[in-house]
From TrEMBL:
PANTHER family in the record: ADENINE PHOSPHORIBOSYLTRANSFERASE
Gene name as annotated: apt
Name under which the protein is recorded: Adenine phosphoribosyltransferase
Taxonomic path: Bacteria, Pseudomonadati, Pseudomonadota, Alphaproteobacteria, Sphingomonadales
Keyword Chaperone assigned: no
Subcellular location per the Swiss-Prot or TrEMBL entry: Cytoplasm
């Protein structure tokens, strides 16, 4: 299945979460068995070309794709969680959202000093969440210089934000607008 065929499986919902936004709903892609398998195959092929030791996925849809790619490559998977979801001592980072702040946390004991992680999530928009996740992994001792996304929204310039942090981005499909 081609990236264009995958793109056709993504539902666009106008005016969500507020007027003027075209929400790219990936649930229609993951509900399609062939589409989900093809997405994981393509992500895995691209990840295999990188020199990484583990995959970190951002809650929640990054878990779906990140864990599948990690399993296919025989690599470990680290969930980057929202505040208060891990039952062990964590390290965390607060980051800005459009209307307020949020927090990501990880178990730092699962990150080896200098271990090379690929950051994986479903969508790259402004890059704020991915940047925070990468900085958090680096704080724990990881090297993070690549990030993969199923969908990219290049008009929101997230790739530029991540490039400023030394992170190369790769998106399977892109949509114009926001």
């Amino acid at each position: 299945m081609t990236p264009d065929a995958l793109k056709a499986l993504v539902r666009t919902v106008p005016d969500f979460p507020r007027p003027g936004i075209l929400f790219r709903d990936i649930t229609t892609l993951i509900a399609d068995g062939e589409g989900l398998a093809a997405t994981v195959d393509l992500l895995t092929q691209r990840a295999a070309a990188l020199d990484v030791e583990a995959i970190a996925g951002i809650e929640a849809r990054g878990f779906i794709f990140g864990a599948a790619v990690a399993a296919r490559l025989g690599l470990g998977f680290l969930p980057v969680r929202k505040r208060g979801k891990l039952p062990v001592p964590t390290i965390g980072i607060d980051y800005a959202l459009e209307y307020g702040t949020d927090r990501l946390e990880i178990d730092p004991h699962l990150v080896g000093q200098g271990s090379r992680f690929l950051l994986l999530d479903d969508l790259l928009a402004t890059g704020g969440t991915a940047r925070a996740a990468a900085l958090l992994l680096r704080e724990a001792g990881a090297t993070v210089d690549h990030a993969q996304f199923v969908i990219g929204l290049p008009d929101l310039d997230g790739a530029t934000m991540l490039a400023k942090e030394g992170i190369t981005t790769d998106c399977l499909i892109t949509f114009a607008g926001h």
